[in-house]
Amino acid sequence: MSDFSREQIIKLLQDEENESDLLKKADAVRKQFVGDEVHLRGLIEFSNICRNNCQYCGLQRDNKRLARYHMSEEELLKTAKQAADMGFKTLVLQSGEDLYYTRDRMCRIIESIKKNDVALTLSIGEREYDDYKAFRNSGADRYLMRIETTDKDLYHRLNPGMNWQHRHECLMMIKELGYELGSGIMVGLPNQTIESIADDLLYLKKIGVDMAGIGPFIPHPQTQLKNAVGNNLHLSLRTMAVMRLLLPDINIPATTAMESLHPKGRIMALKGGANVVMPNVTEGEYRRLYELYPGKVCVDDTPLHCRSCIGAKIIAIGRKIGQSYGGHNGRLPL
Ligand code: 5AD
Ligand code: FES
């Protein structure tokens, strides 16, 4: 089942008519391989400052209209403690590529947060090998960084000043250091072909991701891609479902971007192969300022509200909230 050819993958991605069958199949595979538990990850968006200029992203450094913030160490630790106290078994620290968070500062933060009983995921972009190594030694368990697309020409057009091969090498370092590796892509980028999405899925399989996040590209009005099309929820759902068939036992989130395009986006995803949700546990004004794309859901809500909202939705579709760390193959924090 999991050794589809590129041609078969392309057919599945193109087949709008049989989408519901594909999602049902992915749902059955999800149930068989990872069960009914939905693992919640508390997402802390601790800085929207970024040195990069990704053409799709609202946090790009050229977006001068965005008010920038980074949390202080104390604020970040407090947010993390609150999320751990709310029962999250995994916390995800995500930010733009903000070098205020030096190696030493990050290590201090990781060590403090790991005093709570949580698995810790970092999502802070491309760093040096010695940084990744130090973070790992300080206790970080997982690392999340999307490859975004494996079409190298497209990648280089969308990410000026960045290098696809370098990003790939970062993912390899992360894997070598024994992190659980999360990666993923955006779907519906301008000039992205179905064939290249098939290649993306085969790439994620080849590098052996433990988690794959797949979300629709949503054009942001303060970026170069403001007039692009994007917003392809259904192709994103099919891509996610095929990922589940290709890698039956990995973690697959129902992404926030899906929910931003449809009020039931995450539920559709959970019924089509996904087994993870990453509720935002960032407090107050910061939620609005972490605007990767417009229409991001939950920006006016509180962490507690989102936790109970998503919890209720999960129960309502007959699933359970995961009580463990929820690593790939039940791995503990490493
Ligand atoms: N639409 C959808 N997803 C986006 N991301 C960044 N900008 C956008 C956008 N406009 C995604 C990227 C990034 C992740 C944190 O958010 O895939 O890796
Ligand atoms: Fe935030 Fe439902 S998850 S309001």
Overview features:
334 residues, alpha/beta, TIM Barrel, globular, binds 5'-deoxyadenosine, binds FE2/S2 (inorganic) cluster
Set out the fold topology:
Blueprint: H1 6-14, H2 19-34, E1 37-47, H3 73-85, E2 90-95, H4 103-113, E3 119-123, H5 129-138, E4 142-144, H6 152-158, H7 164-176, E5 180-187, H8 194-207, E6 211-216, H9 233-246, H10 256-261, H11 265-270, E7 276-277, H12 286-289, H13 303-316, E8 320-321
Parallel strand pairs: 1-2, 1-7, 1-8, 2-3, 3-4, 4-5, 5-6
Helix pairs in contact: 1-8, 1-9, 2-9, 3-4, 4-5, 8-9
Q: How would you sum up this structure, described in words?
A:
There is one protein chain. By secondary structure, the chain is of the alpha/beta class. The protein has a single domain (6-316), classed as Aldolase class I (TIM Barrel), CATH 3.20.20.70. Helices cover 41% and strands 13% of the residues. The protein has helices at residues 6-14, 19-34, 73-85, 103-113, 129-138, 152-158, 164-176, 194-207, 233-246, 256-261, 265-270, 286-289, 303-316, and strands spanning 37-47, 90-95, 119-123, 142-144, 180-187, 211-216, 276-277, 320-321. Strands 1, 2, 3, 4, 5, 6, 7 and 8 form an 8-stranded parallel beta sheet that branches.
